[in-house]
What we know:
Mean pLDDT of chain B: 89
Strand content of chain B: 35-45%
Shape of chain A: globular
Shape of chain B: elongated
Oligomer: heterodimer
Low-confidence stretches of chain B: none
Mean pLDDT of chain A: 87
CATH architecture of the largest domain in chain A: Orthogonal Bundle
Low-confidence stretches of chain A: none
Distance between the termini of chain B: 38 Å
CATH superfamily of the largest domain in chain B: P-loop containing nucleotide triphosphate hydrolases
Structural class of chain A: mainly alpha
Radius of gyration of chain A: 24 Å
Largest sheet of chain B: 6 strands, mixed
Helix content of chain B: 10-25%
Number of helices of chain B: 8
Number of helices of chain A: 13
Largest interface: A-B, 19 and 27 residues
Number of strands of chain A: 2
CATH class of the largest domain in chain A: Mainly Alpha
Order of helices and strands of chain B: EEEHEEEHHHEHEHEEHHEEEEEEEEEEE
Structural class of chain B: alpha+beta
Order of helices and strands of chain A: HEEHHHHHHHHHHHH
Strand order of the largest sheet of chain A: 1-2
CATH class of the largest domain in chain B: Alpha Beta
Amino acid sequence: MDHSVSRNWRDPELLLKALPSVLLQTTCFIAPLLMTFLLTFQRTRDFQLRWTWDLATWTDVFTKPHYWTILGHTLVMAAACVAISMVIAFPIAYGLSTRFKRWENEIKILITFAFITDATLKTFGWVLFLDKKGAANFLLAGLGLPPESVAFLFTDWATLLGMVYNLLPFAIFTLYLSIDNIDRNLILAAYDAGAGKWRAHWEVTLPLCKPGIWAGSVLIFLLGVGVFLEPKVLGGGTSPMSAELIRQTFETRVNWPLGAALTLVLMTVSVFLVLLFTRLLNMKRAGASA
Amino acid sequence: MNTAPILQIEDIHKDYGTYQALKGVSLSVRQGEFIALVGPSGCGKTTLLKQIAGFEDATSGRISIDGRDMAGVPAAQRPTSIVFQKLALFPHMTVAENIGFPLKLRKVVPAEIAARVNEMIALMELKPIYLDRLPRALSGGEQQRVALARSMISSPKLLLLDEPLSALDVKLKKVLQSELKRLHRSVGVTFVHVTHDLEEAMMLADRICVMRAGHILQLGEPADIYYRPADAFVAGFIGETNLLPVEITRRGKDRVEYRGTGIADETGAIPVRFIADQVGTGQALMNVRPELIRRIGPGDKAECSMNAQVTEIFTKGGTVQYRAHTPEGYDLAIEIQGTSDLPMRVGEDVRLGWAKKDIWVLPAGAA
């Protein structure tokens, strides 16, 4: 790092250089957030926003356990989605950077295409597949299994399936990048030192792609917390998640202050959890190397 | 000294698709020997090392270490240890964890690992304060020592070195070369060292194995390789040399008769011990190293001599290199002590001579 650069806040040159970034952040991120925050102190009556400046909305949020149940459910679903995605994505990403290196580009293109296909379309595709009279049951019946063997459409499991399906590419690509960055000689060095395949994996590959695992997990967790399509379409709206609750609050109930408050709660809790886990992980790492 | 081969390589072939990296290599290495595999890139030296380490399976052939056939034995279970070109230190482990890793895998108790790690860093002359640092906090030379320590801690029977010094600057390289030599002497482990640096191979190895295009061209002690190269390629690869075309007219029992354009020789014959076995009658090459050629002053005599005109002078420090052009069209390289009484000037016509004992006649062609 160049130490000749002044780090003084009052350095006019530095301030000028930071200006575009500051402006962009303010207009696109900080201002909307601030407006959302201010919105929570108002009320709506007759589908009109009233500037009342009171704490009615917040009282509502903190007294009704209903909102918190949904929030808890959302967090659990997102965490489950992270775990399942990582378990599925790791072998895929590993294979992509090792054994299937030859078809690496073809496979990446296929994954990307599946990824950029509209999520709504794909989610409804799963409905057709999982339906009582859908493709899955048709195939299983053909194999001689009892009718309606697949009967988990409109449950949390179906929601989770849809979430994992739609978010998996994020896991695959972040893991792929970190695995692909590992020097192949490190694995050979582990073998040479006397490690078997699994041991080398555990001692070298996994620790070295920790950053990738972490980045992918954060990404999927935050995206998973915000899903509304999957619980609605695949979960059948039977157990709503936070994003759907917020959408309904804004659109159906036209209660903007409450919607804004729920949004802030969801954001704060998610960010807090991510920071907490980052801290815990760093503490563990510091403890391990001490 | 135990002279049973620690490493026996028999007719190893390795194909990558249609490309043949090794075309039948056989080699026997004695216990405690320091052997260098040298050759230009693509000669198969690194491929051979990977076969020994067990990272790749040979297409055909046999490798045995300490009398045990290594076919189907994975790298993890071979009594070998490799130092990689780019060292391959584990970036997420401290220096102590890196060095102790092979013992940890062998389920050695932590207290003993710590003791052995301390032994290794003493042997490698590393400072104990480095133990808790990550490898990237160390300098290149220190990382090199850590890599060596990690490879030596499990007491391997064979230490394989894959050009580990090639990335270092000249000064550090010299230090680590003598370090390697010292290490080899003090631990008595067999070293197999892959390098493209001939000078390094000459300095370190007991025997040098020169490879080219998947074959072993010559295997011998450094002096053998240098003064008695098997063919024109080895002669040219191992330092600068002069190869003069000659015609062998008769091969006798203890001397051969020859004719060389422009070479003045009173007897026209060379004792048979200065001639490679493969040389028959017909075309051959006379190999004379630059430092064995001298200027002949007036009234002086040499067993072989040639007329030439000096074309270039390069001062190398202790010695001076000359290029001289002969009327027959050959360019000769001559290296003479800087303090010589008979210095030469560019454009000067000189007489150059050498002794029969400094000649090595090798087969023509194959360069």
